[in-house]
């Protein structure tokens, strides 16, 4: 899930504006670049948290339900439970792919290359 962002209070914004207004012209560009870097670093950190987050599911139960489904031995309640697990995994995968796409844009990197670097091999995936 994306990290929540608390906007600064009015007093903090006013203080930041006052400090920016006091900057000498030659330091303004440096300060602006620094702020942009802080924002990018914060965004990258948030995106990496999403990418590395594991779905909160009972993997043993999921595998049991998948196996039983393969052999046609699921009750309607178990089938519904399996669908809920699969839906949660799908939501997790969509969030993860969106985060990788955004990170690739921030880093000016090719999505496919970044995806391959950040995705575990299929033998380790659920």
Protein model, in words:
By secondary structure, this protein is mostly helical. It has one domain. Helix content is 74%, strand content 0%. The protein has 5 helices and no strands. It has helices spanning 10-22, 25-52, 59-70, 76-107, 111-118. Helix 4 crosses helix 5 (111-118). The longest helix has 32 residues, at 76-107. The protein is elongated. The two termini are 19 Å apart.
Could you tell me the number of beta strands?
A: 0
- Beta fraction of the residues? under 5%
Q: What would you call the quaternary organization?
A: single chain
Distance between the termini: 19 Å
- What best-fitting shape do the alpha-carbon axes yield? elongated
Name the poorly predicted regions: none
Write the layout of secondary structure elements.
Layout: H1 10-22, H2 25-52, H3 59-70, H4 76-107, H5 111-118
Helix pairs in contact: 2-4, 3-4, 4-5
Features:
mainly alpha, 126 residues
Question: What's a concise summary of this model?
Answer:
By secondary structure, the chain is an all-alpha fold. It contains 5 helices and no strands.
């Amino acid at each position: 899930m994306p990290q929540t962002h608390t906007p600064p209070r009015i007093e903090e914004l006013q203080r930041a504006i006052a400090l920016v207004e006091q900057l000498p012209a030659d330091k303004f560009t440096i300060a602006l670049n620094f702020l942009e870097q802080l924002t990018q670093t914060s965004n990258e950190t948030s995106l990496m948290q999403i990418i590395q987050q594991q779905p909160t599911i009972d993997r043993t139960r999921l595998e049991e339900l998948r196996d039983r489904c393969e052999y046609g031995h699921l009750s309607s309640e178990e089938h519904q439970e399996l669908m809920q697990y699969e839906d949660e995994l799908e939501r997790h995968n969509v969030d993860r792919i969106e985060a990788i796409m955004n990170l690739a844009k921030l880093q000016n990197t090719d999505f496919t290359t970044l995806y391959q670097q950040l995705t575990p091999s299929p033998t380790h995936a659920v």
